[in-house]
Each structure stands twice: as structure tokens, then as C-alpha cells.
Amino acid sequence: MGLQTKKALLTPLMHPARPFRVSNHDRSSRRGVMASSLQELISKTLDVLLITTGLVTLVLEEDGTVVDTEEFFQTLRDNTHFMILEKGQKWTPGSKYVPVYKQPRKSGIARVTFDLYKLNPKDFLGCLNIKATMSLLRFVSYAAQVTGQFLVYAGTYMLRVLADTDEQRSSKSPKPTAKGWFM
């Protein structure tokens, strides 16, 4: 009983596996990896990117910050993008490199993002995240509002025109008597 209690208290707490994205030095190969520790992430990255070199450096893809401590690794968000550098390779900004703090607001008709990853290697389907931004809906709503206003104004104008022509007809023609309407 005492051995089990000691074992339970002294074993380090395992963090749950989290999703990350990794690429090689020239960004020609990108993969999604689930890992709970820095060492596990490096090991899985070497496996999925088929890197056999033992000496590698893990950096943040966005700015090249070296990730070499478990404490720093645990503070990073899920889906953080990493780059693995072999000996002699250096981080360079990508062709579409935009620092996180200066990302421009993208406007377009629609943007849909699909993220598919497995929480456990034995999972058959895994997890699917779908993010959709639809500015098309805003545009259609605005167009419907403008069209509705146009129809209201056009209808009002048509009623005025028809009312004016009815008044002109009634003033020119004699009014029918009750006898003429029923016979």
C-alpha cells in the first residue's frame, strides 16, 4: 500500500497530447502531430518528416524562436507552427511571412478552414474542426435591404401615379348613376 502511494505521488503528471503543426526547413513538407511533451514532439516530428539526423533544433515557424525547454513548450498554444532545423540549417521567413502582431484583416467572400487530426493513434476518424467566415452573407443581407427599399419607393411612386390618373379620369367622365351600375 505504501509503495503504491509513493509511486502515485512521485510520478510526474503527464500533460494531455495537444495538436501541433511542424514543417521542415524549407516548408516543403508540413505535418500535424499530437504530442504532450517537447521530447515527444521532436521524436514524432523526426518520424513523420523522415529526418534521420540526431542533432536538430526546434523553432517557432513564425519568428524562429528556439524552443528548447519543456516549460516554454507547455506555455505554447495548440496548433502552434514549428519548424525543425537540422545541423547547419537556419530559419528564414517564408514568402508569405507576416508577424502575428501585424496580420492584416483579410476580407473576401468566404473562408473555410478544415483541421483534421487524431487525439490518439488508435482513433479511426479523429477530430475535425471547421471554421467558416462568411462575409457573403453580409453582402447578401445588404443587397436585400437595398432591393427592399427600392421596391417600397417604386411601389409608392406607382400608387401616386395611378391615383393621379384615377382622379383625372373621374373629373373628366360623368359620374355613373345608381341605375347605370345595376342595370
From TrEMBL:
Keywords: Activator, Apoptosis, Lipid droplet, Nucleus, Transcription, Transcription regulation. It catalyses: a triacyl-sn-glycerol(in) = a triacyl-sn-glycerol(out). One of its GO terms (biological process) is lipid storage. Residues 16-93 form the CIDE-N domain. SUPFAM superfamilies: CAD & PB1 domains. InterPro entries: CIDE-N_dom, CIDEA_N. It holds the Pfam family CIDE-N. It is found in: Lipid droplet; Nucleus. The keyword Transcription applies. The keyword Lipid metabolism does not apply. GO terms for cellular component: cytosol; lipid droplet; nucleus. Homodimer. Interacts with CIDEC. Directly interacts with CEBPB. Interacts with isoform CLSTN3beta of CLSTN3; inhibiting the lipid transferase activity of CIDEA. Belongs to the CIDE family. This is Lipid transferase CIDEA. It comes from Myodes glareolus.
